[in-house]
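Appendix B. Chain record.
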Amino acid sequence: MARIDSEERQAVYLFNQRYVENAKKPKMKKIFDRAKLERSVRNIFEPSKDERKSERRRLYDRVRKAFS
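Structure tokens predicted for this chain:
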């Protein structure tokens, strides 16, 4: 697995190097998008908005039933 990971890192590095060398105006965001990576990590550890909405909806329905 470590070998596969290192080969993948090397492939990404070479691809990015090729992009920078050949692009007229290379953009750092195309190479490394910190905000996108942070969003993906945050989405892994936080429940999605849909789950939070459905949880809030279930709670609202329970409260409504209790007071109806």
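Further analysis of this model is presented in Appendix C.
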